[in-house]
Amino acid sequence: MALQEKAVIESKNVTYVYNPQFFKKGVTEQELERYCDVSQYESSGKVVQVFIGRGRTYLVNDQEGRRVIIRHYYRGGMMAKLLKDKFLCFSATADRSVQEYDLLLRMRAMGLHVPTPVLARVTRNGLFVKNDIITKEITGARNIGKILSERRLADEEILKIGDSIGTLFRAGIYHSDLNINNLLLDGADNPWICDFDKCEMTSITPRRYNEMVARLKRSFDKESEERSGMMWTERDFEKLVRAIEIVFKEKY
Ligand SMILES: Nc1ncnc2c1ncn2[C@@H]1O[C@H](COP(=O)(O)OP(=O)(O)OP(=O)(O)O)[C@@H](O)[C@H]1O
Ligand SMILES: [Mg+2]
What we know:
This protein is an alpha+beta fold. It has 8 helices and 13 strands. Helices cover about 35% and strands about 25% of the residues. Strands 1, 2, 3, 4, 5, 6, 7 and 8 form an 8-stranded antiparallel sheet that branches. A 3-stranded antiparallel sheet has the order 9-11-12. The chain is globular. The mean pLDDT is about 95.
């Protein structure tokens, strides 16, 4: 892993892990805090796009005119109503943004098509912590859900996407939320994968493989039910799975 891609500033309540390639030497805690502050981008008209998922993910223009994605971590499931974005400080994934930052670095070092991490922030308050992550925008990227609401994917594109998923699996990456909106095509039609919260490097057993493919299938089905006119068929999914298998199962 290239060391110059990770530096740390630690204060009493906040840890910042940042990419020195994005910040000037001697960057301060206050400057990093401001860099994460979405309201600052909102008030200066620097928000380019907002993605609504569990929470809101912002595509913004930073002061240097670079486009980055800012995501705050929210809870899912039963605890979402009660605790929203608060995670217990002693849980194994309390510093999940730092874990995602590290995994992104590791995957990029392996040549995988995943975003470049810019900054991870862990904010502690008593028993609870909150997390944020910032990544560099994949230029011109659009998620597959959005694309399929407008047009079909060409067979060649399905193949490329399957190839990138198979390559991820082959590298031993377990994606805990592999879904239609975490698969992207950039402006030059290259495939990318994003959203690595709670993902890990591990061995991809048949059980894990089946679980990820089943989740992906559910997400295509759910999106097709919810958005009328989604240009995606069962046959397209079969093509996608075949493309994943060609790469992933070559290993055996
Ligand atoms: N680095 C990136 N470059 C370009 N677009 C991105 C990047 N990261 C995320 N996006 C876009 O933002 C959307 C939401 O991002 P992401 O999947 O990380 O968060 P989320 O799905 O809202 O989080 P959650 O799973 O908690 O709901 C993605 O579907 C994708 O369209
Ligand atoms: Mg997502």
